[in-house]
């Protein structure tokens, strides 16, 4: 215990600090009561650290966030998100940004993909696909599984893309035969796939679809909206011949919202480079962003727009965690599947129907129909009162009839937090309190 | 001192915690050594707070960031930026977002302006002006004081705006006569003014220009790029008849980067509403964002793209601080002027020339020419080694010849931090070490 000695000073300081934390005159009071602080060479740093800590500002109560994004974020990631200001050209940040770009490649299982990390909601990813890869009048096949397929198509059309939709009933996905039939109709510049539609939790078989698209025409660009999948669902960018995969920071990559994240194949970059029409966007133009991404990855700064320094630092911490926790990323995907299977097995044992059939369901979220006769306001406030936040329905056709549980990132990967057990326990209790009678063999 | 009693438990816990902080088995060790933690009803929260604190994750060294953005950020703002995840439709967040929109109006001194807070770099603000207010072929007068005037014009042209520039030599601004002459040439849909050009620190007389523009044609839209001014320089949105003012979160509003922030007059909103041409953007369209801003301000959630929850919470804290610190916002502007005058007086006393002449210089930053024969690599690394980060030159014509000191936000408003004294002391020392000989009466 010899090394406890230098820390002894901290005891009386912290004792008094607890008194002072809520007092706006704290620094002055500390200086008055603890003159020795001014002579201890470490005291300035110590004081600053205490002051910077969340001890005084954490909210009284935190509710476990189990919606399909934003998700719960690791404390180390949050610390980076709330880190002290750093210049966007500081060598430390340049290295963090560069590493984040490299790590993103590993998470998406690609050797040669070109990553982009841009300040924006994930939504900007649709614009970036449209303005950089689509020329006015070009045909795009939208494999539409719900709300987000509609929105992606809307974005493509703003920039002159002509979309054809392959749709399916709510909560299911187009058949492979329907997709093949659409591909046979005419040649497409691009096919878009919503990997997981956050509105319903329908999962699309990206590998099989990509194979079918490329077999029909290897020049067709395969775009995966992976907002509710990347980092959770299996997605092998190179092996599956994906050309663009996009997501946002606040989903299975486990950082706060505010970053639009993409991976682009060298083939798609070549299509971009050979583009004839002018790029109909300034902020979304890869001509602006590509030199910045290449520069930071080469560990030199470049400027187009000030990057969201702390958010990128947070993403950097999260990506490192992801690849340290399961050095083989396949283990992460498998864990998401196992946890999802468990959630769905438990919910099924309650006698409740899920929005997509199990074989068409995502592993990052679960959409659950309410019991007959029960409305969302009877359930969700009870769940919230028990400290868990779920999402209501989003797909306009069925919105009042179902709720959504998100299970991705830390809540899935860190068993010791008990997030999954807790959400299931709380939802079961709340259903019971709302008058639902469970089957006898309910888990 | 009766109320110290409930805190006594914290003393031995924290003492041991200091031993444990760097140990990955910390939670287990604490549980073993402090079984009483499990019986104290407050212990769970206490432990979580300690765990969430930055005590263990703060970088070893922090350099004082004195560039013209990002700027130093208050610890309470950082705590919000690194806060635990919260749903973007949580009533707590809905209220914070709504308040942030209202507070923004106060900081910009407007009663009726329509605020927008969007996930993006400030750069998106240019796109939003262009895609919502400019129709293809319309004429725009760009009052160009440097790097950022060029960039704004480039963005406007991407969307079909036809720009005419009124330029001035580097480090100075167009004369009022030159602006009047340009206004007399032809009618303009819009005039853009870079309030403070971050590349050189030139300040534009927005009030006088706006008056001149509106006198010539009250229908001309006056747009102020306030990225390096809003929250620091005097800007009276209503009184000066400004139609659009835009900034980013990481400048004088004192939050981390990642938010594009705008204020739009009701007149400009009416021009937007009467727009004939389709809006050539999806992510930048006010048709998408306006209902979201109106909803959150009315304290109901609405969805277009997931907002950057923690960044908006950070901005909310910062805006509250700004308006608490100086309830009359004019006092904040006056303080920025006083500090800027001090910095410029000291730098002048060193015998160094500043980039804009004093009467054309911003109060949020100072651009300083290096002494004859000295290069940036002789100075900036020395400054950095002393714990202060400055920015090099940015305007391409003179980039290697000058450096920039940012002075806005907390570094200006909170004297007790000593940021201004420190940056002046450090730069003076570094200049001396680089071989510069100061005049005898140097401050």
UniProtKB/TrEMBL annotation, chains A, B:
Keywords: Aminotransferase, Pyridoxal phosphate, Signal, Transferase. Its EC number is 2.6.1.44. Residues 1-15 form the signal peptide. Residues 85-322 form the Aminotransferase class V domain. Pfam families: Aminotran_5. Belongs to the class-V pyridoxal-phosphate-dependent aminotransferase family. This is alanine--glyoxylate transaminase. It comes from Dunaliella salina.
